[in-house]
Amino acid sequence: MTGVSDVLVVAPHPDDDVIGCGGSIAKHVRDGARVTVVIVIGRERSALDDSVSDAEFAAETEAAAKALGVHRCVRLEEPSRDFALSRRVHLDLVRVLREVRPQVVYLPHDNDDDVEHRMVHQLTVEALWMAQSEFFQETGGRPMPAPRLVLGYEVWAPMARFQYAEDIDGQIETKVEAMRAYASQLRHAAWDEGIRGLARYRGAVSSGSGHAEVFQVLSLGAVPAGPAGGGRD
């Protein structure tokens, strides 16, 4: 992770970036990297937060990004439950990839229980290839170099196997603070306690103590061609 100047995080929904890799985001920022977050799908209202306006929810997203130190947050506002993989949304993501030219990319892991998470995984893998190709000139910019590292993160579908663990003991409070910025989401459940518990469990499993985030390694210096094999013994 040394020498990383630009990081891109692709999140299916608002708060998925915080849950999946919020500690790693804060760590990249601490080390001087610019972190761009792309949130693909817009807000899904529920009876528990229907009184929260779209402007208020957008302010929660901004507050969470600020807590982590995110440089830029891009919201594509694709429709929830009607989300489809189209050329347009691929090109939207390719455009951001070519602008940011990240050395590290985070996306949902390939076996998440949520269908929209799996769709965004597929979207990102395909957009990574597209952004590096000589085609799709309508997005502007030059083809981007291959990222040094592409990592799949977990949200609420923990991975049975992982290949990489990041120690976030020094960032866990920042991650929890960012989750608490989503006050409307905490009406559904105690997600702030959930992310602390998951990080504590992952810390115990990966190193015996502390807090950690774990990842599927999808690519080392090249575009991912398919699901990663192997696992952590």
From TrEMBL:
This protein's record includes keyword Zinc: yes
Gene3D superfamilies named in the record: LmbE-like
Keywords: Zinc
InterPro entries in the record: GlcNAc_PI_deacetylase-related (IPR003737), LmbE-like_dom_sf (IPR024078)
Keyword Zinc: yes
Transmembrane domains' residue ranges: none
Protein name, entry field: PIG-L deacetylase family protein
Superkingdom of origin organism: Bacteria
